[in-house]
Specification:
about 120 residues; mainly alpha; Arc Repressor Mutant, subunit A; three-stranded antiparallel β-sheet; 7 helices; 3 strands
């Protein structure tokens, strides 16, 4: 019988999380991310996603604010997703539209207790 089974389970869970979340950026990957973020269209969409008036944005909302075609916004969000900068909400808006935000914007607006609760769900306690 293990002396500290719960502690061992927690440590094992953190290791699993580390394996899932660890991402080693190679120089090629960093260059690709920098290329994506240097695109003017992507930069405009990213700024709109980080508008302090909103936590989550729809493609149509960003397109309306920025004044460009929703197809271009969708493409820019795909590029931001490739650069691992954007998150998609697991919930849609009341009209069924997907909602997006940037990683940095989401965590800057998320209370610490919510962040801790999310972390506890990830470690399967």
């Amino acid at each position: 019988m293990e002396r500290f089974p719960r502690t061992s389970r927690i440590v094992a869970s953190f290791r699993r999380i580390g394996e899932r979340l660890t991402f080693i950026e190679t120089p090629e990957r960093k260059a690709e991310k920098a290329r994506i973020l240097a695109d003017p269209l992507v930069a405009v969409v990213k700024r709109s996603l980080e508008d302090p008036r909103f936590t989550w944005r729809t493609i149509d909302g960003v397109a309306q604010q920025v004044g460009i075609n929703p197809g271009f916004v969708d493409h820019a969000i795909d590029e931001l997703a490739r650069a691992e900068v954007v998150y998609e909400s697991e919930y849609t808006d009341p009209d069924g539209n997907e909602r997006f935000t940037t990683q940095q914007h989401l965590w800057s607006r998320t209370p610490l207790l919510t962040q801790l609760a999310h972390a506890m769900r990830l470690i399967d306690l």
